Amino acid sequence: MKPLARSARTAACEDRSRKPRPVGSVTRGTTNPNRLRRVDNWIAVHLGGLLRRADDPLVVDLGYGATPVTAVELRSRLAAVRPDVRVVGLEIDPARVAAAAPAADPPGLEFRRGGFELAGLRPVVVRAMNVLRQYDESEVDEAWSVMRQRLAPGGVLVEGTCDELGRLASWVALDAAGPRSLTLAASLSTLDTPGTLAERLPKALIHHNVPGEPVHALLEALDEAWRANAPYSTFGPRQRWRRSVEAVRAAGWPVLDRPARWRLGELTVAWAAVSPP
User: Fold this and answer.
1) Which residues contact 60 (CB under 8 A, 6 or more apart)?
2) What is the mean pLDDT of the chain?
3) Which of 27, 52, 117, 173 is 20 to 30 A away from residue 153, measured at CA?
4) Does one domain contain both 144 and 194?
5) Cα-Cα-Cα-Cα dihedral of 98, 104, 107, 110, to 10°?
6) Domains: count for the chain
7) Residues 138 and 165 in one domain
8) Is residue 159 within 8 Å of 178, Cβ to Cβ?
């Protein structure tokens, strides 16, 4: 990935009377139906209250890819929380924006050209999945900062990555002050070992999965608990995962979510526990 051609901070502060120039580079565009179902459902549950309280329930889907399917799905899933939610899909490639146009359903769903500057919008939620994966780690903080500056008051950025089928995923939730949590999510029916999630850590963490780093310690603890709770696989992978998360929490990790989410193959911990030194 090439470095940003100009300062993203400068771009984010452009005169609002001018149309912001997209900041960033075109992604590979890989997408599949239901690929982002796990993160969408997490947003609906954990950020549903934020959407319901918002005067303008605007959500940005940044970098939706070569087809608009995941943006369409996001709008559908969040409409169950806030029927008048507005989703704007942003892509830097004009050809992708044009190709997505037939899927638009104003005012609930539209597509525009834009990047990290969020096309000058002030969304209450931003979903940016599989966007920063192609960037250098050194560029992550700046990209995060630019997007966070564009959030509506109280808004949240959800940034992360997943595999092609959405069976393994992880994401960071950030607000105006910075990152606040990390979520790991897996399809338990196909999960071999929690350590497999290392392949899909967010860009800010993926190169820190080495001994001595906090995120490596978390995955090691989860793997160890998974092995220790192998007998519970008799009752299904959900029970095994739940017991594993309970063990991780008992070991002192700041687990933020509850058993209802664990049953879905999720684990959310405070960002401070995994933040790189």
Assistant:
1) 87, 88, 89, 90, 118, 119, 121, 123, 125, 126, 127
2) 92
3) 27
4) no
5) -40
6) 2
7) yes
8) no
Residue whose entry in the numeric block shows the structure tokens 């889907």: 61
111 and 79 assigned to the same domain: yes
Band of residue 27 on the pLDDT scale cut at 50, 70, 90: low
DSSP code per residue over 109-151: EEEEE--TTGGG---SEEEEESSGGGS-GGGHHHHHHHHHHHS
| Shared-domain flag, residues 228 and 120 | no
Q: Which residues of 187-202 are buried (b: 16+ CB within 10 A; e: fewer)?
A: bbeebeebebbbebbb
H or E element: which one contains 55?
Answer: none
Q: Does a structural domain hold residue 105?
A: yes
Report yes or no on 40 lying in a domain.
Answer: yes
Q: Judge whether 14 and 150 are in contact, CB under 8 Å.
A: no
pTM of the predicted model over 0.85: yes
Residue 259 lies in a domain: yes
* Residue numbers of the domain that contains 42: 1-176
Query: How confident is residue 17, by pLDDT bands cut at 50, 70 and 90?
Result: very low
- Cα separation of the two ends of the chain: 24
Contact 104, 110 (CB under 8 A): yes
Where is the domain boundary, 129, 151, 176? 176
By DSSP bridging, strand 109-113 and strand 86-91 are: parallel
